[in-house]
Fold these 4 entries.
Entry 1:
Amino acid sequence: MAKITLDLFRYDEAVDEVPHRDRVDIEFPETSTVLDALEYAKAEVDGSITFRRSCRSAICGSCSMNINGVTGLACKTPLKSVLRKDNSVAVDPMPNFEPMKDMVVHMDPFWDKYSRLKPYLQPFDRDEDHERERRVSPEDMKKLVAVANCVMCATCYALCPVVSVDPSFAGPAAIAYAYRFIEDVRDSKRKERIGQISDDYLWLCAHCYACSYCPKHVEPQDDIIAVKRASIQEGLTDAPGPRHALVVSKTIKQSGMLNENEVIVGTVGRFNFKGLVKIMPLGLRMAMKGKVPPLFLHPVDRIDEIRTIYDTLEVPVSA
Ligand code: SF4
Ligand code: SF4
Ligand code: FES
């Protein structure tokens, strides 16, 4: 047993104007989880402490919260691994959500984005046309195994810096789930699904990899890259995001370097005169500060090696 202090975020939207913190002292085995400690504090010290949980086994996805500033599943986080020097642990609600009561948050934006995906199989034919289940080859199934582990805990969503600055962004879990259906050979709505997730600002993802801290190892950051690639393959390239990706890829293949002039014009759109006029003041300011990149770039030494990498990976470069 160890003397442990739970440093808790306390707030009830029904009565409190601002949140406050409570320090709750308990004697508890360090080998337990943060969720066990919260359960004990609620049962033995203060029954009003509020948090979501169900399975206690990292399966239901309910108990995601901020533990010493890092979002994760409380039932999967050993106390020992997070105790601070003074044997305390700070517990807060997930960021990127409005708090409702203590660690419980309003999950609606997360679920709304998930529902928009129509997260169910929409096959080419009817169930009645099949004598038995629709078979999927092991190779095709392999692509879906990781994302099938998603428990919709929203940890990744809470960690995403793009969601925090632009809440209209779908977020990593929704894009990973879009990937789950886009790559399912039984589903008939591949193009519609890619279009829908693109409309939900797929291309805002900055590839910061913060969402790689997924308690179920779904790796949504990889699924996002796959969905972006699929959107280019499906020809959905008439938007700043895909244009940017294609022109960056093209200039690096050409010279081994980023041609920033090309990237700006290519991203805005070569024939988007309104957009080009809009960025002219920026160009002028850069020119006045002597920051205009060179117009022409000579290919770097051993450019052939870079092009070989492209050819090997079959990266599309038609901007
Ligand atoms: S991808 Fe991982 S972190 Fe995100 S909701 Fe699913 S299980 Fe949770
Ligand atoms: S990789 Fe993209 S989705 Fe994941 S946290 Fe970063 S910006 Fe958000
Ligand atoms: S209680 Fe179910 S995931 Fe933690």
Note: The pocket of FE2/S2 (inorganic) cluster (ligand 3) is lined by residues 53-56, 58-63, 73, 75 (CB under 6 Å).
Entry 2:
Amino acid sequence: MEKSAIIKADGIEKVYGTGRNALRVLKGVSLSIGEGEIVSIMGPSGAGKSTLLNVMGCLDGFQSGSLSVLGRELSGLSVEDLSMFRNRHIGFVFQLHNLLPDFTALENVMMPMLIRRDRRQAARAAAISVIERFGMEDRLDHRPGELSGGECQRIAVARAIVGRPDIILADEPTGSLDSENSRVLMNTLFELGRENGATIVVVTHDAGIASITGRTITIVDGSITETQ
Ligand SMILES: Nc1ncnc2c1ncn2[C@@H]1O[C@H](COP(=O)(O)OP(=O)(O)OP(=O)(O)O)[C@@H](O)[C@H]1O
Ligand SMILES: [Mg+2]
């Protein structure tokens, strides 16, 4: 039986700027991602990968087309509703990790659960358990400025998954890691995702990482050219 689509995009058009400065970045992108799938997105720099991920993650709007996530049509939602939807259902790993500099690694990972008003004790326990899976339990009290680039990325991935979101969107989460450590990080993410039944979409330039996902979508100059 075919699994139902958890993310469905139809003819998404995204333009930055207006008039002479208008830049058409997504040129009618359509895709369908099934529940529990692990998918990679590849393509050259500037192709629109981050833009597409931001749109799917409700971080950014689009001009035309339709997007449904978890069966809900998102094009009409207000910014407040979008951010509430995101906090509840989507874990996002940013291309630049975006950890909060004044908070410790542990507090950063607890944050999504605190924002949705889970109890502090539960958030702390969940955060520690996920941080352990990434082998970072001896860095709980370090602030991002006291962590290496690769350690920040591991903490950012832990933060994305701690609240057991339905969907995890990760934008090149292994940029500061060598290929062996990237593979370890991604394997841990995929393992945790499978345990939680999460759907995972990961943007990567690393063919080794793409090869351990179930399917790769290639985007070139704002259009999907291949999906295999
Ligand atoms: N906020 C913005 N305003 C105007 N143009 C933008 C904005 N964000 C991105 N762009 C442009 O849109 C295009 C696509 O950017 P995007 O970040 O999606 O690329 P990408 O595929 O993720 O590239 P990379 O692999 O380098 O991360 C680029 O040409 C970029 O300059
Ligand atoms: Mg990008």
Note: The mean pLDDT is 92.
Entry 3:
Amino acid sequence: MNDWVKAEVIKFKKWSNNIFSIFLNAKIKPFIAGQFAKILIILNKKKIIRAYSYVNSPENKILEFYIIIIKHGIMSNYLSKLNIKDKIMIKKNSFGYFTIKNIPKCKDLWMLSTGTGIGPYLSILSKKKKIKKFKKIILIHSIKYLKNLHYLHIIKKIKKIYKKKIIIKITLTREKKKNFLHGRLTKLLKNGTLEKKIKKKINNKKSHIMLCGNPNMIKNICEILKKKKKMYKKSKNKKGNITTESYW
Ligand SMILES: Cc1cc2nc3c(=O)[nH]c(=O)nc-3n(C[C@H](O)[C@H](O)[C@H](O)COP(=O)(O)OP(=O)(O)OC[C@H]3O[C@@H](n4cnc5c(N)ncnc54)[C@H](O)[C@@H]3O)c2cc1C
């Protein structure tokens, strides 16, 4: 049985008008880094359930979620207005297969994200036990503006843990800044800029690509990788070099 359990808001961080992080205390079962929770609220006697990826590593018992407020979105607006000590419900067991265990061993693991899609990677890479399965990890975080780099504090910690084993690049889609990539992931991949800047070639024998966030980005990147690199989505019963987590 996967019951709902109470979750209490213990901290709240408003990053901007439409992005926040919420920190919860709840007696959930241990989850695997990369998984997501299901959150339940009751509004006008109607149950509303949405999925949210954990940002915290499984060792950290404070549950952290990085959330964008959707215009007219029921759950995101509701959560954004909660106060400390308010209670919501969360599923005791977590969900999803966007985990390192499900990625085949290879040379380079590419972790690509848009916006709040950075969450599962932060959880995976903050774990005390370092990932040894890959020679190099490349983390790419696509945001609109530099001011949207809310999780720099954790990114810095990850860099300290993984040192030369990880390459981290931020791409800004709406402004140009020195030392940052500029443009959408799709464009950077299609025109070869991403590989050029990282100084690594994506290869269907040596690389695996994780994609998290905007479903249009995921669809377009899968098409580019299929065309340019003969890379395909991995599923439970099918081998492949792309693993995805689509947020809508
Ligand atoms: C596996 C999984 C993990 C998720 N993890 C997160 C997370 O960590 N953080 C998070 O903010 N959302 C996450 N989501 C999305 C989340 O479940 C909700 O869909 C979102 O909060 C909107 O709910 P709502 O009731 O406010 O809006 P709804 O009325 O349900 O509006 C849904 C619409 O909002 C848009 N939308 C949904 N999510 C996003 C997003 N992240 N960025 C931009 N537009 C979006 C889409 O247009 C979608 O059709 C995840 C979804 C899935 C399936």
Note: Residues 215-229 form the longest helix (15 residues).
Entry 4:
Amino acid sequence: MRRAVTGYHQDDASDWVAELGCGHGQHVRHNPPFFLRPWVLTPEGRASMLGTELDCVRCDRLEMPDGLVAYKRTAEFDEGTIPGGLRKNHATKPGVWGVIHVVSGRLRYHIDGLGGREMRLDPGSPGIVVPEVLHHVDPDGPVRFFVEFHRKGG
Ligand SMILES: [Zn+2]
């Protein structure tokens, strides 16, 4: 999905990496004749590209970025106490990832963004919640689960 550039850093090889709002990084090399991004070589050029959007395939693959810290978790819910808001489409804020941990039983996880997906979660398969992507859950029989939220540390 499309993600805004929020900053930059250089990797160990001094190649420029754009930092995206989701927490992922993406190389933005100027490597003629294959990759032509002369703007990345100057502070002015990089600043001019802040806020533009790049396609983030790692969000599409539900991969959590490195370097996130868990900062909050919900209470544990069961099939009778799931808040109505979780059963309707909702999304986390920019940069906020969630992990749906099923403690026992099974939960249906519907992702309405990213082209639409449906997954069955259980204690061995947590659900990854991608920032700003609409989703909701439904119980699939008896279930106990909680959601843990992660964002960039520091
Ligand atoms: Zn991403």
Note: DSSP finds three helices and ten strands in the chain.
